[in-house]
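Why should sequence recovery work at all? Because a backbone constrains its sequence more than one might expect. Tight turns favour small or flexible residues, buried strands favour hydrophobic ones, and helices have their own preferences. The token representation captures these environments compactly. In the example below, the structure is given first.
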């Protein structure tokens, strides 16, 4: 029995390690607070939009991707009950996006916000 215990502990630890949650978008963006505008643009690329008001500069980065949505309509038989079973020619697609906006003062990131269904 003594030799079986280590053999059971390792798989249990591997299973527990697989259950750790991934960091959220907010947790991944938090290290950017206090970084320079040059660091931000070097990592994210050219911003999609910029706006400056009262000494605060806002840089907006947009990401969009297309996903396949599950079809919610059934297959059908256009020629009666003995005809071929027909369905959608192409699965429906949905474009989801995420907009991340960084607020900078004196060239340093002070805060960020994000919105959109594609933010994860």
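From this structural description, the recovered sequence reads:
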């Amino acid at each position: 029995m003594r030799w079986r215990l280590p053999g059971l502990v390792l798989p249990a630890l591997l299973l527990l390690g697989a259950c750790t949650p991934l960091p959220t978008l907010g947790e991944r963006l938090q290290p950017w607070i206090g970084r320079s505008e040059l660091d931000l643009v070097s990592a994210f690329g050219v911003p999609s939009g910029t706006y400056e008001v009262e000494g605060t500069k806002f840089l907006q980065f947009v990401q969009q991707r297309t996903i396949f949505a599950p079809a919610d309509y059934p297959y059908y038989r256009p020629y009666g009950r003995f005809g071929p079973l027909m369905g959608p020619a192409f699965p429906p697609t949905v474009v989801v996006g995420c907009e991340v906006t960084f607020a900078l003062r004196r060239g340093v990131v002070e805060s960020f916000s994000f919105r959109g269904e594609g933010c994860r």
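A few observations help interpret the result. Residues 27 and 61 are 17 Å apart (CA to CA).
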